[in-house]
Amino acid sequence: MTGRPLAWLVAAALASAAWALQESSRSMPAVRLMTLDPGHFHAALVQKEMYPDVAARVDVFAPLGPDLVGHLNRIASFNTRPERPTAWQLEVHAGPDFVDRMLHEHPGNVVILSGRNRLKIDQIARSIHAGLSVLADKPWILKSDDLPKMEAALAEADATSLVAYDIMTERFEITTVIQRALVNDRGTFGEIVKGTEADPAVYLESVHHLMKVVAGAPNIRPAWFFDTAEQGEGFNDIGTHLVDLVQWTLFPGSSIDYRTDARVIAAQRWPTWIPENDFRRVTGEPGFPPALSHFVKGGKLEYYCNTLVSYALRGIHTTLNVIWDWEAPAGSGDTHFAAYRGTRARIEARQSRVDRFRSELYVIPADAATKPQVLAAVQAKIRALERDYPGIGVEDRDAEIHITIPDRLRIDHEAHFAQVTTNFLAFLRDRRTLPPWERPNLLAKYYVTTKGTELSRQGPPRIAARRAPR
Fold first, then answer.
1. Same domain for 275 and 400?
2. Of 166, 201, 224, the domain-final residue
3. Which domain holds residue 124?
4. In CATH, what number is assigned to the domain containing residue 212?
5. pLDDT tens, 281-319?
6. Which of 1, 220, 234, 332 could form a disulfide with 322 if both were Cys (CB 3.0 to 4.6 A apart)?
7. CB atoms within 10 A of CB 377
8. What is the secondary structure of 55-75 as a DSSP string?
9. Chain centroid to CA 48
């Protein structure tokens, strides 16, 4: 053989291959998504936009069925929309062993989870143990017995520099952002009052609707959505947002220890009754499936999705009311009401017929004598906030002060998923930027939602009074 020795040629080839691999890894996006069992449309909303440094290819691991088909159709609609179409490329892995297959093959490094909730914490924990970061929709757990699993999973994520993050979209709602700023402005709000169980310092009420018509057709929900053992009850689910907002608003940047800071006092629940004809409309099923037969009474489904919970957070009495009605009255929709009571003023975010069911923010001074000082403080705070939120303003309406918000700042609910995902990606790039309070506050949130749900089952069901303006 003439020329270079064989050993040299082999070494050169290996060096060339190593260089090519290094160059390839430099050009390869740092984040490669995998979607696991997308049973809820929130899984698709994470991909409503494209993100820098995120691979266009997404691997989907799920059983073959309507949940998977619905997810694929949603991603296809994002890819084919006229304005700002996405360019996602889906690789589908369908089969009964989809979880084990994802954990064994893991072609990506981030797991997206949104769907069935009963086994979600096990899937989160197994993903973290396999070296994968997780972006998971709520709720992570349905029972308080699973809190140790969550605590162990989060501890492992911390120890291995992974990110496990939940999708809290309501932190990005503009009225909520400004409400938080005003509650923490001493001149406007004063100090938070302690309140009592009968007269709480904080009251949040959220009303959702089971039947929604989108583009003239019913928004189909899977039959398992109505199985509370799989989906959870209303406070398990929607309650996560409410508890999160209370913690985030009252104690910004502060870690909460659920063992000492949170005390669930009382809870009650009541069902929304769904006739079989309505069940057919909302699910597309021919009737009640066998899995729900023990919830059917007199031809109606007894669906426990409403919960009223009273608890104290560092001694501050808080009441949360989660309601699922059947269908919204004409011209309205889902509503959110939040009131925080301070020594100088009450800060309310509300939707009502008066405001055309659009979320608006109000400051109600505690008494007429201090109204001028409160108004001046609100004006000063809004001027400071206007640097970040241009166009917001103050309108004096005699007994209350209205915070005006321009339409360009009112981002719809679906767009908040991209904002959450952008935050998550920033934490992936630099794990040190993940706030240290996120982990304990996540545990505190699920302590309240699970304990509140469990306490509500102990007494006879009652229908709670609504306090939000209609």
1. yes
2. 166
3. 30-166
4. 3.30.360.10
5. 999 999 999 999 999 999 999 999 999 999 999 999 999
6. 234
7. 23
8. -SEEEEEE-SSHHHHHHHHHH
9. 16
